[in-house]
Amino acid sequence: MNISEAHSVEYESAINLLSRHNQLQLLDYYGELDEEKRRILLKDIEKVNFSVLENINNSTVRSTGGEYSPVTARSLEDIAENRKEYEEEGLKLLRENKVGAVLLAGGQGTRLGFDKPKGMFDIGETRFLSIFEQQMKNIEQVTKISGAYFPLFIMTSEINNTETVDFFRKNGYFDYPEDKIRFYIQDAEPVCGFDGKIFLSEKHRVALSPNGNGGWYSSLVNSGLKSVIEREGIEWLNVYSVDNVLQRICDPAFIGAASLSGLGCASKVVKKTRPEEKVGVLCEKDGKPCIVEYYEASKEFSEKRDKNGELVFRYGVTLNYLFRVKLLDKTLSNKLPYHIAEKAVPHIRDGKTVRPDKPNGYKFETLVVDMVSDMGSCLAYEVEREKEFAPVKNKTGFDSVNTARELLKLNGVKL
Ligand code: UTP
Predict the structure, then answer these.
(1) Is the pTM of this model over 0.90?
(2) Index of the ligand 1 atom closest to the CA of residue 209
């Protein structure tokens, strides 16, 4: 069989597949494409997860009903009292190589409006200081004490992988041993219009988008890195977001408290400053850990106060979790729900690229917060927000570049 015959077999099967899913528009420009581009498009089509589209009319987001109750956290006072014991346990695990870290760097940072990987954003004032560099400096504080470098897995996306990997390489991996750093690309889901029709990002490419930060574990498994975790005997993974410049990674006391608690996972939390603060809240639902995202919380839930006037649901998550590795496979079999986000998606229409300035379609994302429920139990570990929570989400206002810079300076970082 010659190449074009092989393609025509694949073309026929693409037509069958797309007809079944009512997505034939993906072949609109097939006739204009050269052999190579046809091959790429047919490969893209073969890999599309069409089942994700069923979520449009039949959301799998777990029910918002149920009985919510607050969690009892290890408070700042409890932690101060037990710090020595926690740190000893954490340092022991770090020195035995039982802990690894996973940096979630696959997001697109749309709110920040920065067209490069968010970690490359310059948070300096008088010098260039990338978020990546600042976070690697935070790691150095731990490795200096433990004397042990932990494995660092960095999840990127198809969109930002090359730039991220190049940036680390050009910066000498920020003095971290190169062989301890492993990059992997997160899986992606198709992006469609409000009518459920999948977009083309180019005439020969299906429009895809990273599958949300909940994809970190399944993507790690799909990248073949689970064998590394098994081989190295890693028992805990510290998963953290790229956008908190005060992020303490592999904090020995946090690891120790999590390990000694015997629970399935642990989350660093801060006390919310106001009911409407845009953070997910760690609580329990029907006796199981649950994180209620700010956009899903009712006013009553967010504003409820106890007899001392404190918010009942007061612990906001900082996107710094410890997961017990042996429980993680549950999150694969339980299937995380998809959350649907309305986004402005560039795509091909009438042969040209259009870049809408308001939402025109859906992206499908799984969230790391949903993994916490699957762990069965979660330790809430309170940290001081001025020392550990400086998210860079927006250009200005709350959780912005300016608020993060102020907090860095407060912590003695020269910008
Ligand atoms: P956010 O939920 O703030 O998303 O990510 P974002 O993409 O960075 O920013 P917006 O919402 O477009 O403005 C929280 C963390 O999860 C990671 C981000 O890189 C960040 O560390 N993330 C998010 C992924 O790794 N993959 C994703 O698909 C989404």
Answers:
(1) yes
(2) 28
Q: How far is CA 354 from the centre of its chain?
A: 28
Q: Kindly state the tokens that stand for 57.
A: 């009319």
**φ, ψ dihedrals at 324, nearest 5°:** -75, 120
pLDDT for residue 243 is more than 90: yes
Q: Is 56 exposed, middle or buried (0-12, 13-18, 19+ CB in 10 A)?
A: middle
Matching residue, tokens 């190169």: 178
Distance CA 190, CA 200 (A): 9
Per residue in 273-312, pLDDT (tens digit) is 999 999 999 999 988 999 998 888 899 999 999 999 999 9
- Which residue(s) pair with 378 in the sheet? 265
pLDDT band for position 341 (cuts 50, 70, 90): confident
127 C-alpha vs ligand 1 centroid, how far in Å?
Answer: 26
> 343 alpha carbon to ligand 1 midpoint, in Å?
14
pLDDT value for 142: 97
Q: What angle do CA 156, 380, 320 make, to 5 degrees?
A: 15
Nearest by Cα to 375 from 412, 321, 298: 321
* pLDDT score at 66: 80
Burial of 3 (0-12, 13-18, 19+ CB in 10 A): exposed
Q: Report which residue type is found at 342.
A: E
Q: Is the CB of 317 under 6 A from ligand 1?
A: no
Residue whose CA is closest, atom 5 of ligand 1?
107
241 lines ligand 1 (CB under 6 A): yes
Atom 21 of ligand 1, nearest CA residue: 241
Which residues are CB-neighbours of 331 under 8 A, at least 6 positions away?
Answer: 217, 218, 371, 374, 375
Please work out whether the CB of residue 243 comes within 6 Å of at least one atom of ligand 1.
yes
Span 129-149, mean pLDDT?
97
The structure tokens listed for 102 are 């996973």
Is the C-alpha dihedral spanning 332, 334, 340, 341 positive or negative?
negative
Residue 351's region, left for phi above 0, alpha for psi from -120 to 50, else beta, is left
For residues 184 and 225, the answer to whether their CB atoms sit within 8 Å is yes
Q: What is the pLDDT of residues 84-110, one digit of tens each?
A: 999 999 999 999 999 999 999 999 887
Alpha-carbon distance of 279 to 86, in angstroms, equals 27
- Please state the atom number of ligand 1 nearest to the C-alpha of residue 104: 25
CA 165 to chain centre: 18
Look up residue 48 and give its two tokens: 């599309």
Does ligand 1 have an atom closer than 6 angstroms to the CB of 111? yes
Q: Decide if 168 contacts 117 (C-beta within 8 A).
A: no
